[in-house]
Write a structure and sequence with these properties.
The complex is a heterodimer of chains A (530) and B (185). By secondary structure, chain A is an alpha/beta fold. Helix content of chain A is 23%, strand content 19%. Chain A contains 11 helices and 18 strands. Chain A has helices at 14-26, 46-55, 109-113, 123-137, 166-174, 222-231, 283-293, 371-376, 381-388, 432-451, 513-529; strands at 4-10, 32-35, 70-73, 139-140, 195-196, 199-200, 238-241, 246-251, 257-263, 270-280, 317-326, 342-344, 358-362, 392-401, 409-416, 422-427, 455-461, 496-498. In chain A, a hairpin with a 5-residue loop joins β15 and β16 (422-427). Chain A starts with a strand and ends with a helix. Chain B has a domain at 31-138. Helices cover 45% and strands 0% of the residues of chain B. Chain B is built from 5 helices and no strands. The chains are: A alpha/beta (530), B mainly alpha (185). At the A-B interface, α2, α5, α8 and α9 of A face α1, α2, α4 and α5 of B.
Chain lengths: 530, 185
């Protein structure tokens, strides 16, 4: 078995796939080893798909963190179960593929607000890589929307709004953007603008919502890319090893990373592999745990952790969720897709950054009636008709941006999970001010529901969670304020990189995967130019 | 656990079974088995009128599902053969139409409980899955006509195909439409 490579990539998700593909296309014989802790779960398998359709079972859910493997402390529960796929392909096995760019102000959060952090790069430096990422993921978006500066059109046209989006679009047209206490320029007025959700779907997409296990590969999954690389005869030195949790990064000096050590879960044997460059692409959970576990004579507290910053500044999104009810649904509105088609960035602007930006969208599954379940329950056609046209609920939701705080930290706790990775504890608290701001934003959403003529029946701030965790090995300008530099290289090392949400200094109010992919393209360019 | 049934079916339907999938590794469905199962699938469309004409335009998809469920582990052949036994007994007792009415609307089966007799196995492993498959593959097609208005197009998971690719998969937003329309009529 080969034990020496040009690049070792820890983790087998979208970041790994992007970096590996970029390096191999640049130089075909580059030797790359990807080490993935989880198993390989076949995508596009017909039996798996039929079981998903008929029983609601998805084949990868057994890899999700269980409660006994990941807990949290602090004044709010941090959801870690059910959010990360630990398998070949990573969380792109189940992602919704909402693919939104961060906005220019997201890179200057501290400068603009005095809270959180700035990125060591700005939006303009990442813009061309966003183009690459959108092409790679096949993002379907609306070029006319003009939410953020862009130099290229989207590669694929957007999904149109559904009929069920209509009432919310009309409500937004009638409402002003409200600049609340804490926002910049209170009193300023502009209309809420409707947008089409950019989602990553290939042109061959032809279903209305089995995206959580796509039968035809119509939505990006890193597994497809890695399979292609493995099967491409040009790339003779590319290898992926699954069931291979890495538990140690080894150094030969303070700055020189020499190797990584992993366990083969199938036989329990330990292997040490040397690499000229090591890239940690295993997500905002595992990157900090691995760095801190890698203690040696040069790094007493773990690699990159001389200033006790590894694992800190955990950022997530709070989900705001307001549900409205109508007494009837005479036109049978139904969100046929299993993803949202309507969104707005009107509160995701610099003016709202201090208080907390929100990214609003109509819930991906409402209004909805589970007709099959009603049939299963023995309801007649007439009874089901009454229900279809009867009471209707619509949710409006929003991601609320949160700012990294020193005390919010993710770390390992004793014991291994089922895949040989350290178990997790997330210490996470919100301040009273943050809770107030979240509740103020919630009031905005309630106004929208009321403007639609619906009765608000539920209004809540959901707990934060691991879906969009960022910031546990964040980029910065020095070891005193960050773990990694502007190229995501761990400070004071020559050849250890973090290609993960972990390196994000801020989490914006939108999903992070497109930005991670753009950062991976930028990293490839950095390697090529070195 | 499912309550023991005494009012639907006879000794076959009410024979106790363990809740797990009936073991059938290495077994296959015969052509006659498939035809008998197709009758159940067609009866679903007939009883709920949720297909445009009948279930025939879903036949190839349905066969594909049967193949996937019987040629890969865990093998559903035992469940499918059991369903044929059950429906045969129900037909003998209630006649063809009555048998499906009993099975679909009056079985008394708790769909969320582990199935512990042959009737419950038939309902949960076969009928309920056939219903989900039919709604998914068929979309809404015939739902949405009550008010003579537009209709929602497709259920989550509807899979279009080359034959239908030019047909919009969902009902798109029309700025002139209003949800109050039918109420005002």
């Amino acid at each position: 078995m080969k034990n020496q490579f040009d690049y070792i990539i820890v983790g087998g998700g979208v970041a790994a796939a992007t970096v590996a593909k970029g390096l191999l296309e640049h130089k075909h014989d580059t030797s790359i080893l990807i080490l993935e802790a989880g198993p390989e779960i076949i995508a596009k398998d017909r039996r798996f798909w039929w079981d998903y359709i008929t029983k609601g079972e998805r084949p990868y859910t057994f890899t999700y963190d269980q409660k006994f493997e990941a807990d949290s402390t602090g004044n709010i529960d941090y959801q870690t179960e059910g959010v990360r796929v630990k398998a070949y392909g990573g969380s792109t096995m189940h992602w919704g593929a909402w693919s939104l760019r961060f906005r220019p102000e997201d890179f200057n959060l501290f400068t603009n607000t005095g809270e959180g952090a700035d990125w060591p790069i700005n939006y303009e430096e990442l813009e061309t890589y966003y183009n690459d990422a959108e092409a790679f993921l096949s993002v379907c978006g609306d070029d006319s929307a003009n939410w953020v500066p862009r130099s290229k059109p989207y590669p694929v046209p957007p999904f149109e709004w559904t009929a069920a989006d209509g009432e919310m679009i009309k409500a937004w047209e009638q409402l002003d953007v409200v600049y609340q206490d804490g926002d910049i320029n209170p009193g300023k007025s502009s209309k809420i603008k409707s947008g089409k959700m950019p989602v990553a779907r290939y042109r061959k997409c032809m279903t209305t919502g089995t995206c959580k296990y796509c039968p035809i590969g119509g939505r990006f999954n890193a597994q497809y890319v890695l399979d292609d690389l493995k099967n491409d005869t040009r790339f003779i030195n590319f290898e992926v090893r699954t069931n291979a949790p890495v538990h140690q990064v080894n150094t030969s000096s303070k700055s020189k990373i020499e190797s990584v050590t992993y366990t083969d879960n199938l036989n329990g044997k330990e292997h040490t592999i040397t690499g000229s460059t090591v890239i940690l692409a295993s997500g905002a959970y595992n990157v900090p745990k691995l760095l801190r576990a890698s203690k040696n004579e040069f790094w007493k507290d773990g690699i990159g952790n001389d200033h006790d910053l590894v694992g800190r500044f955990v950022v997530s999104h709070s989900m705001l969720n307001v549900v409205g009810k109508a007494q009837s649904n005479p036109n049978g509105w139904f969100q046929e897709y299993d993803f949202p088609t309507l969104m707005s960035h009107s509160y995701n602007t610099k003016e709202h950054q201090k208080k907390g930006k929100i990214f609003m969208f109509k819930n991906r599954t409402t209004p909805n009636v589970d007709i099959a379940q009603l049939m299963i329950d023995g309801k007649t056609r007439e009874e089901i008709d009454e229900i279809v046209y009867g009471e209707m609920t619509i949710n409006i939701q929003a991601f609320l941006e949160e700012k990294g705080k020193h005390g919010n930290r993710l770390e390992a706790r004793p014991g291994k999970d089922r895949f040989g990775l350290p178990q997790t504890t997330v210490h996470f608290s919100r301040t009273e001010k943050e809770m107030k701001n979240a509740n103020d934003r919630l009031k905005l959403l309630e106004q929208i529901i009321e403007k639609m003529g619906l009765e608000v029946i539920s209004s809540r701030v959901d707990k934060p969670g691991g879906h969009h965790t960022t910031g546990t090995a964040r980029m910065g300008t020095s070891p005193e304020n960050s773990v990694t530099d502007k190229f995501m290289k761990v400070h004071d090392t020559d050849n250890l990189y973090v290609c993960s949400n972990a390196a994000f200094p801020t989490g914006s109010a939108v999903n992070p995967t497109l930005t991670l992919t753009a950062m991976a393209f930028r990293l490839v360019n950095h390697f090529i130019n070195k | 656990m499912n309550k023991e049934l005494t009012c639907v079916g006879g000794p076959v339907c009410n024979e106790k079974l363990s809740a797990g999938l009936i073991f059938a590794e290495g077994q296959n469905l015969t052509h006659q088995n498939k035809e008998a199962l197709w009758e159940i699938f067609e009866a679903i469309g007939r009883n709920w009128s949720n297909t445009i004409y009948n279930s025939n335009n879903q036949r190839s998809s349905w066969y594909e599902m049967l193949k996937a469920k019987t040629e890969n582990a865990p093998n559903y052949t035992g469940e499918y053969v059991n369903a044929i036994y059950v429906i045969n007994e129900l037909k003998a007792i209630y006649g063809i139409g009555g048998a499906y009415k009993k099975l679909f609307f009056e079985s008394g089966i708790d769909n969320s409980a582990p199935p512990t007799n042959r009737l419950a196995h038939c309902k949960i492993y076969v009928v309920n899955e056939f219903i989900r498959m039919q709604i998914t593959a068929g979309g809404f097609k015939s739902w949405g006509t009550k008010y003579g208005g537009e209709q929602a197009k497709n259920y989550h998971g509807f899979l279009g195909g080359t034959r239908y690719n030019r047909v919009s998969k969902v009902r798109a937003y029309d700025p002139d439409a209003t949800n109050l329309k039918a109420d005002q009529e």
